[in-house]
Structures
1.
Amino acid sequence: MTVFPYLNIYVAYQISILSISEGKNLANIKQQKKRNLQNERNRERNSRVKSSIRTANKKVLKALESKEKDSSTILEYFKNFVKTIDTAARKGIVKKETAARKKSRLAKKVNAAVSVTKSA
């Protein structure tokens, strides 16, 4: 009754690809199943930490761009950013060089803003 008999094979092929891409039924070996679970857990943890780094960075930048530049607030947000990114670098979530570069670039902006608020 079907005009295209090969269509059922194509649909089955798509379903099998979807199940592989989702990571289901991929590993047969016990250790590899465990490794897959660890990788998934670490991936989720890393994404949470990287998100908190971006959030801390944005808080500092918003404090710098605000009309009322309070140096104590800026410095507090910057210290929180440094703490967050240093912890991530120590645990290997972010490379040490990347952490140093991001801290340096943000520190330049913070120092410029704090020196302007002190002189004004």
Note: The chain has a mean pLDDT of 86.
2.
Amino acid sequence: MSICPLSDIAEYWSTCVQGNHGENKISEYQIGIAVSRPRGPTLDKLRDPLWHSRAILNHFQKQFAAIAVPTGVSTIGKMTVATKARSRARTYMPSKPDKYGIRFYAVVSWEALYVHSLWDNASGNALQSSPALRYSEQFPALRTSLYNTLRRNYIGVNPIRRRLCG
């Protein structure tokens, strides 16, 4: 018994597919296919082994930041995705059944179990940017204050605050 109300294979089949697929139907489908030349690798693609998934990681990061701001107790969790790919981003783990994997980290709140941030460990990443700069590239509002701070010749620390830090 299935939870799906459709019980016969014929009910799954679309009516637009039924009928005679002649030479003209196949040629109609081929019109929509476009083949483009492969682009040469850019410098960022050569230096970043996870360039293909960077856009989706940035998308998740922006969605997490748009929904909630971390308050209270949070923890950093790590997860390794098993891979057999020959990539500089993989990590060797001799004690695991899957010896190679790509490691990701997440900041998770204890109370709501909500993921606030997600990033990879940048293993094999040869980009010249720092992790703080890569993070602030996603959020332009953070980039301005970081840029202005790093541009100063001297960054002074208040002696009162220095004693509070330890």
Note: The two ends are 66 Å apart (CA to CA).
